[in-house]
Write a structure and sequence with these properties.
Four copies of one chain form a homotetramer. With 319 residues, chain A is mainly alpha-helical. Chain A is 57% helix and 9% strand. At the A-B interface, helix 2, helix 3, helix 4, helix 8 and helix 10 of A face helix 2, helix 3, helix 4, helix 8 and helix 10 of B.
């Protein structure tokens, strides 16, 4: 919120009549009087202020964070109120909004994956092991997972459909599949990033020590990579991997746009299980195959009778 | 091949000058004189002929199978020869063909997944446990995996591009990601299908025993499900799950269109790792951010200097 | 049962008063009059009779199988009746028996894993790729999984305890953990076995074709491995991998000694969650640490007060 | 090191003649003149000093950390020198030491797992969802993974063997299997801990805000759990989960006692693959079964000939 211009407040779950007072949706500028932001603590938050190197992500780390938002006597102009008591629309609103947000995760987090994959390759290369078979394999696994999530996000949008209003909505089933994958695979690729980066990400001293004339020289000696690589670049890249792989980005990948349990409920609900049952029933012969005659040109029973006769006659010849 | 009208023969790997005699591609009808098919043995192949029930997939099981194909003095008309010695095109041809084939797997195998998911739900339901939380969770995992592969396949096509000839090619990176997922997830969802189906898939007797007047009655008693479900339908559905979850479809998901090791090589090769390295270098400050000034409107150094000054002044106020 | 001398019949779940008639346990020879065995169909069962090679496991495949067992007017001598209506002991009996059986799985299935790992290495070696990095990695993963299950089984026994009768019982929590791992990892190592074996396991023709003078010669040419390896040995080893990786052994690993859902219930029940909660409460400071003063020699509050004072004084010096 | 009394310095890899000067092992007190410790930065290190609550692990967090250790003109008494140039023993020394250390991980990290499992249950319970099926399932998975690692560690010790000196060594293969599991499963159970704890672990404000009279009241309202649970206890437990799941403990689980690639090399080397190949060869009939006649009482060929004759005669009767 701290980095935004506007707040859009929405219900976060389906509601009943007794919840009507909370069935509200509206937009206000973030600096509207009456709104309080209580900034949260997050992984390595205070370290961001220590020094650019120690921050890990020297340019952008300083600006992140979540906030608890309190509304107290906030005036919202009527034209910016989108819902005021229509509790029976809350479910649909949440599902639609969450669908978009869940779909986005395969773009957002995969962008971060690209950076951490690049950083992992860089660190391996700086130590002369980018060609080692286990490093290549680990990077390939990271890429495979990232592109899988990216594919899910793409499919969500491409399979989207036009609503009567003219707006498009993403595919609701695939959006939840995207996010469920993200809640697992982000952790997995960050784990591999830590594998490739090596123990140095937890033994690297602070920038103050690195800048110390005597101590810094020793650290530089201990952390140097292959010929021709500036050890200061190694420091920066190790901190970037640390920053990305331990940070609040992981629980955010878990719970942003709803927790995995919510995604599973939606997947179960939108999976079209009835149609899948029909397919199974048709194939195992419990249900009549309505399309058979249309496609094959003769009734199913007749066709299979003939086929079996042919098989029997061949069988006789083989044995 | 046995079920096809035409053979299209292709090289299966990149070739050098010494392989020129094998750098051939052509098409012939399957019944062209001089071609021999040696039919392979596959899981439960002979059982397919025992009885429709025992076959598992009573209608379609009988027609599957792989064949070793031998060409001996086969005449191929010149207009059906697509490559004759141009060995330096073999790599590109294999990669293109394999790309299409690998992309397809997210359609083909997910179609089978839909059937086995439907069958699993049916079996759980027939035993009155379709609503048990662990069953719902397992079905949801199956659906999540299947839709993930489906998304990969969709993304391959949607991200395809037009070639100078006017034909479209799938996205080569995503095609290999699709197939790599298939080589793992098919096994996983079939494992869950066996979990849900229960021990009955390996204790169900043969159709002959089921049709025996005395023995059949006992079997029916042992295998019955919840009130109202015909035990004969349970027999059929159990056999379908067995058929799909143990069959040749699994190693086919592994090795069809190339083995996983081949997909990994292609993923590594097409991942654009250089661009990912640049992103990491830019973010951690090793590389100048070329776009910064364009986007933000002032040189990067100046911007960050100002930002840090602001932070320092706030910090002073906080402490 | 078909391969055994005696049947020991047991209840398979906890029972109540209304189930008293079924709360029976007893032992009888397998050929006791009145017992009927209805043999089940299993993967590739009829193929076992076709030829030793096609059987896959040429010596031992023929003797496996499950059977539905029917008791009808079977006389059981009173001295071989172990339970007759004591329904309130059923739960404990099932749990104890299942515990032993679940513990065994880390021995039984890991023995099979050793064979399939050896076979996989053999096949890779016969094709000259046993040293390829991805093959080494896959074999190492198989070994890691197998030894994990073996460790679980060992720990079950080593952590066993003496009962008042003098008999020893395995550790009940670890037994269920062993079996839960087996229900997943067997499928995973068999998947890798199919990965390493390659497409040949589904394209290998029947022994009849292999023994045919003309066709056999062509097959031998198509399936040969590296210099010096007898192609007949390749046939045998491919069939062994096929036999072990598609067979009834997989659903048996899933459901034998109870299905995974049963193991999960037992793990949750025996996990000692209360003690784990206490540990967390003590560490985060909600609960008084009873052992602190005993170990450290002064009250906890006093100790931490002193420690914090020391830190503050150092902090002052650092800044 | 900072928390220890003595340093034991060891070689960290196999060495050759040219490395003889580095083939040294010795022990000295940590405060021996000439030793410098450069303390490393780790996740949330400076936050540990902010306040007990913000530290996450209010009592013990303050004392952790790694250090780069520099030896410069350090006097080591000869009786505390264990190796001085015997480079050809480095490999064996490293392998033995690493074996013990790797084996320990199934104790050390599983102790932490017990705490984080307890904390996860506590948080779920404090919000009234400890009985939700997906929570029970997730906790059971955490327990299953932790007990698996614990079993590996137990098996390492129980399978240890006595050396000529009278000391015992752990089982070298299982030690590496233990550590390889830890490099993966610690990340997995910490991921689940974050799943169960919910988004609150990244939105919880600082202790300063919590202690603020007005703001603190609002935070308490936002973070309260079910009736009867003190919100201050919720704050503490959330911070404990955060502390344990993002901290340096994860890369430490990855790289301590050697990185996963090192464990894989050892597993491959100690797996006894030759014996596994022999088993496969014996079973598929390539290799003569040396034990058969001893066990069965007649030569193998004779036995199988008789068995097959029996089967043929039965087959004739069945058909």
């Amino acid at each position: 919120m701290i980095n935004s211009h506007e707040i859009i407040a929405l219900p976060t779950r389906a509601m009943g009549e007794q919840d009507a007072d909370y069935a509200v949706a509206f937009a206000v500028p973030v600096n509207t009087p009456g709104i309080k932001y209580i900034f949260s603590r997050q992984t390595n938050d205070s370290r961001r202020l220590d020094s650019p190197l120690d921050a890990g992500n020297p340019k952008y780390a300083i600006v992140g964070g979540e906030a608890v938002i309190i509304f107290k006597n906030v005036f919202v102009p009527w034209e910016r109120v989108f819902m005021a008591g229509e509790y029976d629309f809350c479910g649909a609103l949440v599902e639609t909004f969450a669908g978009y947000h869940r779909s986005n995760y395969g773009g957002c987090k995969v962008g971060l994956a690209d950076v951490v994959i690049g950083a992992s390759h860089w660190v391996a290369d700086a130590h002369g092991v980018a060609g080692a078979s286990h490093i290549v394999d680990k990077l390939t696994e990271m890429i495979g997972m990232a592109e899988t999530c990216w594919s899910c996000s793409l499919a969500c949008s491409y399979e989207g459909s036009k609503t009567p209003s003219g707006a498009y909505v993403i595919d609701g089933l695939l959006a939840n599949v995207t996010k469920l994958n993200i809640t697992r695979l982000v952790y997995e690729w960050m784990r591999i990033a830590q594998d490739i980066a090596g123990g140095k990400i937890i033994t690297l001293p602070s920038e103050k020590d690195i800048n110390h004339p005597e101590v810094g020289r020793i650290i530089a000696e201990c952390f140097r990579g292959k010929e021709g690589v500036d050890v200061n670049d190694i420091f920066k890249m190790l901190r970037l991997v640390e920053n990305m792989s331990v940070g609040a980005g992981l629980p955010e990948a878990m719970h942003g746009a709803g927790s995995p349990a919510a995604q599973k409920i939606m997947i179960a609900r939108r999976s079209g299980i009835e149609r899948k049952r029909e397919l199974a029933e048709t194939i195992c012969g419990i249900r009549k195959d309505e399309d058979f005659e249309k496609i094959v040109g003769k009734p199913e029973e007749e066709y299979w009778k003939e086929t079996k006769a042919k098989i029997e006659s061949k069988k006789a010849k083989i044995c």
